[in-house]
């Protein structure tokens, strides 16, 4: 079984988010969420919430299908960060000049699956 969750327009650069996402790729979903609780990066909180949301989505999907569900069996099959829109802002500088400030955002997607489903998707 597979479940997906995504968050969009997170106000963090994709590069910073990828540093955190790479730490948990391929791990057990529950352990990954627990380990992110102790990461110093601010985006770790958003990624942890996203993983917990994917676990909850898997629970709902299993209940709907009438299947057995154990969240400790779920692994992170896929997790990736895409760039979102960039807000452009202007900062005044000396002598009438202006600097452009780029406020970047990102979209994060996570797919959790049971190990059997994760192996079938890899083939």
UniProtKB/TrEMBL annotation:
Pfam families from the xrefs? Answer: Ribosomal_L22
Q: Name one GO molecular function term.
A: structural constituent of ribosome
Would the keyword Ribosomal protein turn up in this protein's UniProt record? Answer: yes
**Which superkingdom does the taxonomy of this entry point to?**
Bacteria
InterPro entries xrefs: Ribosomal_uL22 (IPR001063), Ribosomal_uL22_bac/chlpt-type (IPR005727), Ribosomal_uL22_bac/org-type (IPR047867), Ribosomal_uL22_CS (IPR018260), Ribosomal_uL22_sf (IPR036394)
Q: Does the keyword Kinase apply?
A: no
- Note the subunit structure: Part of the 50S ribosomal subunit.
Q: Which GO terms describe its cellular component?
A: cytosolic large ribosomal subunit
- Which family, according to UniProt? Belongs to the universal ribosomal protein uL22 family.
Q: Which organism is it from?
A: Demequina lignilytica
UniProt-listed Gene3D superfamilies: Ribosomal protein L22/L17 (3.90.470.10)
Q: What's this protein's name?
A: Large ribosomal subunit protein uL22
Q: What keywords is this UniProt entry annotated with? A: Ribonucleoprotein, Ribosomal protein, RNA-binding, rRNA-binding
Which sequence ranges are marked TM in the entry?
A: none
- Write out the function statement from the record: This protein binds specifically to 23S rRNA; its binding is stimulated by other ribosomal proteins, e.g., L4, L17, and L20. It is important during the early stages of 50S assembly. It makes multiple contacts with different domains of the 23S rRNA in the assembled 50S subunit and ribosome. The globular domain of the protein is located near the polypeptide exit tunnel on the outside of the subunit, while an extended beta-hairpin is found that lines the wall of the exit tunnel in the center of the 70S ribosome.
């Amino acid at each position: 079984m597979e479940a997906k969750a995504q968050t969009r327009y997170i106000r963090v650069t994709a590069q910073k988010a990828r540093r955190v996402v790479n730490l948990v790729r391929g791990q057990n979903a529950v352990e990954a969420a627990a380990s992110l609780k102790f990461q110093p990066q601010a985006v770790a909180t958003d990624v942890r919430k996203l993983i917990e949301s994917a676990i909850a989505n898997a629970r709902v999907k299993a209940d709907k299908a009438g299947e057995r569900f154990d969240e400790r069996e779920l692994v992170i099959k896929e997790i990736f960060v895409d760039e979102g829109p960039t807000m452009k802002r202007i900062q005044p500088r000396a002598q009438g000049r202006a600097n452009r400030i780029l406020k970047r955002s990102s979209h994060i997607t996570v797919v959790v699956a049971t190990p059997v489903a994760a192996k079938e998707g890899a083939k």
